[in-house]
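Checklist before submission:
- one chain only
- standard amino acids only
- sequence pasted in full

Submission:
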Amino acid sequence: MSARAAPEVRWRCCAFDALAVAELDAIYRARQQVFVIEQGCAYLDADGADPQCWHLTAWSAAQAEPLAYARVVAPGVKYPEASIGRVITSSAARGTGLGRELVRRAVAEAEALFPGAGIRISAQAHLQRFYGAFGFVAVGGEYMEDGIPHIEMLRPPATIT
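Returned file contents:
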């Protein structure tokens, strides 16, 4: 099966206060579409951490919601390290490579915003190899979160040479 061509996107990464109300609405709709509707997880998505995060989005003129999204979380909000969470790729962008580009950019943003902090994530267990390709290693065993097996993973701080 061949990958579909990635749609043309405009990337934006900004602090919560820099998001327009319409952008925030579209981000919340996209997160709910993936996590609540597609994955069937009933949980409080707007968990109070968003105002302390940076928001990375891939926008397309073809749809109102972002094609891809991740939030970059400051150290001390979720973990002692920086974190990446709420990682989604819309159904319209799946199979195009946009998910890999999203994670690559999210890691780069986290390292630029919080140099030397490392990055800790709570990944869905079936994505362990995917995140491993970005330098994340499993720390601990699997656990259930919202009815889905997860695993904590850590990307150690980048070594400056």
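Reviewer check: Residues 21-38 form the longest helix (18 residues).
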